[in-house]
Amino acid sequence: MNFEQARFNMVEQQIRPWDVLDFDVLDALAEIPREYFVTESQLAYAYSDKTLPLPNGGSMLEPKIVARLVQGLALKPGDKVLEIGTGSGYATALLYKLSGNVTTVDIDSAQQQRAKEALDKIGLNNINYQIGDGIADEGDGNLFDAIYVGGSVPEAPDTLKNRLKEGGRMVVVVGGAPVQRALLITREGGSYIEKVLFDTLIPSLAVPEKSLAAKFNF
């Protein structure tokens, strides 16, 4: 399979038509070999416009969703980025290409190791990996310029809002079927400004059930 051509087609036929027009994002997508982040049985679908299953039962979001969310963060070199849910590592690669400073957290050490191996293969070996519940954990007190949440949650977690610097941005998909909303949340003067980026429907973030029960009101 000609992966280089498939990558070009993905950018031109899937990403651009979905209002992803940021040149830095498009350039990064054109460089990242997505075939490294899928299982061998999924190689034919590496650049398809679909959600792919991960070995641990999680999901690899379709490329246009990842691209549109990351575009919303308006990353620049040096931005300190927190990713909740390493997953396949593909979004991690995009975040790192744009910022050069990523901490990624996942509850599944085996899946995160698979992602790390793929990221190491393409030379992205200066990423900070953490194992834990990124939703419930308050972290070590570090604040971030940007936070990317790699799966849907019932509502935007206060624990993550509190980890944003002044002027910091978070993208997160909230709600449930049949329609969820992708939000851009910006911390401004102690307040949090929400903007709806688009409507979608994606798999939920993998977190312990007790975490959801403790952090969200149903």
UniProtKB/TrEMBL annotation:
It holds the Pfam family PCMT. Belongs to the methyltransferase superfamily. L-isoaspartyl/D-aspartyl protein methyltransferase family. InterPro entries: PCMT, SAM-dependent_MTases_sf. The lineage of its organism: Bacteria, Pseudomonadati, Pseudomonadota, Betaproteobacteria, Neisseriales. SUPFAM superfamilies: S-adenosyl-L-methionine-dependent methyltransferases (SSF53335). This is Protein-L-isoaspartate O-methyltransferase.
